[in-house]
Amino acid sequence: MSPNTPSLADRIDALLPQTQCRRCGYDGCRPYAEAIVAGAPINRCPPGAEDLVAKLAAVTGRPVVALDPSCGTPGPLAVARIDEATCIGCTLCIDACPVDAIVGGAKRMHTVLAALCTGCELCVAPCPVDCITMVAAGRSWNLEDARMAGDRYRAKNRRVAARATSEASRNEAPENAERAKRQAAVAAALARARLRRDNANVRAK
């Protein structure tokens, strides 16, 4: 296989709607694609509905099955809306949004960019003042929406991972300094002990 040939997980991921809603039980569309390769059912994506199940059946060689109702039911696209008068600027919804569709700062009003919202609803539960509701988008989710949402999802994951690495490095620096300090103290104590021993040996002679 050529290095440029998409893997099965890549091909499955390309078919998924990239809403990153986690209704399938996985942490996003890519994790679900990888799980399907490993044997997970192909019928756990309500946003993709029956049409997606048929496409996944074709690419995986599995039979078409009914959509799993335990994951939810398909429906028209809905997007999040923030009651800006109630918003307290806690940033919890910003952290929860998998595609950076919410803008705002700490203790400042937040706003959902409706054109970027995937309708995943992941921002609703974390809101401590219940100021987020889902409203009809008035349009359908399309392939370009999916492509852009996938790009934003990957970009956010890279940013979060880089920040975590940076924070870990900062936290580790004082610990490393303290460890070095202890090691230096032990080395100094050993040197003093060796010096006392050597002096004692000289006197004994």
Write a structural description.
The chain is mainly α. The chain has a domain at 8-71: 3-methyladenine DNA Glycosylase II, Chain A, domain 3, CATH 1.10.15.40. It is built from 5 helices and 4 strands. It has helices at 8-15, 29-37, 49-60, 92-96, 143-204; strands at residues 78-82, 102-103, 111-112, 132-136. The protein has a two-stranded antiparallel sheet. Strand 2 and strand 3 (111-112) form a beta hairpin. The radius of gyration is 27 Å and the shape is elongated. The termini are far apart. The model has no long low-confidence stretch (mean pLDDT 91).
Task: Record the SSE blueprint.
Layout: H1 8-15, H2 29-37, H3 49-60, E1 78-82, H4 92-96, E2 102-103, E3 111-112, E4 132-136, H5 143-204
Q: Helical element count?
A: 5
What characteristic shape results from the CA principal axes?
elongated
CATH architecture of the domain at 8-71: Orthogonal Bundle
Outline the low-pLDDT stretches: none
What's the N-to-C terminus distance?
Answer: 78 Å
Strand count = 4
Largest sheet: 2 strands, antiparallel
Secondary structure category: mainly alpha
Mean pLDDT: 91
Percentage of residues in helical conformation: 40-55%
Q: Strand content of the residues, in percent?
A: 5-15%
Radius of gyration: 27 Å
CATH topology of the domain at 8-71, anyone?
A: 3-methyladenine DNA Glycosylase II, Chain A, domain 3
**Topology pattern, helix = H, strand = E:** HHHEHEEEH
How are the strands of the largest sheet arranged? 1-4
Instruction: Say which CATH homologous superfamily of the domain at 8-71 is assigned.
Output: Electron transport complex subunit B, putative Fe-S cluster
